[in-house]
Amino acid sequence: MELLFFYIFAGVAIGSAVLVVTNKNVLHAALFLILTFFCVSAIYVILRAEFLAAIQILLYVGAIMALFIFTILLINVMQAQFLRQFHGQRSLAAILVVALAAETIFLLLSDFRGSFPLMPEMPSETLGKAGLQTLSNLLLTDYLLLFEVASVLLLAALIGAVVLARGNIATADRRR
Amino acid sequence: MVPLSHYLTLGAIIFFIGVWGVLTRRNAVIILLSIELMFNAVNITVVAFSRFLDQFTGQIFAILVITVAAAEATIGLAIVISLYRGRESLNVDEINLLKW
Known about the structure:
By secondary structure, chain A is mostly helical. Chain A has helices spanning 2-22, 26-46, 50-74, 90-110, 112-115, 131-140, 144-166, 169-175. Chain B has 3 helices and no strands.
């Protein structure tokens, strides 16, 4: 049963990921990316990471993709769909990417137990019983420095985004 | 139960779809979207390892990756807006001031 749902969500995730990359219309690409995020969130639920599944939808779909869609609507990118969409290097890049992906997947599937000898065959059922409590305890004790660094990073990104997107006020006044 | 290699293969496939998008597309916004795809692929891998090793460290790293993705998306979109303001175009082939 779990395997069936994994295959459904993985298939939809891969299909919409391909559509994100190949779509001409930027807005449609962003909407397909949202579909991918929902499928990844379902896979987190299968992995018993319910908190991450919620964070995925709240933060990725609710914040990051909303920001993307606002930006897409703000700038007039709709004319860009009539241009050529791909570089001249696309066939070379496709060969490279397919070779790398085939290599990785071959390594993962062929000598899997040899690559990860300590990894158990199947996960235990104990994880996720008191998941959120353990997670928050860890985040505020062992990984407190990580938490603080992430806060400072977000502050820096906020200030940087304001400075970059504000533009030059002097030229804006002149244009007006 | 789903074996670990399935999760890792899914992560690898989505990651390489993202790599393909970054290497081939000419639109800056689509390149940013492909980078988000790659972040998600890494997160799937990390959370799968965390589940199979029975430790929560992987989930904490996934939260950190999501934070970094949020910061990266904000900065990337701010750069996209200021590029569009200056050049009326988002074609990365034309943006080559720092290339040579």
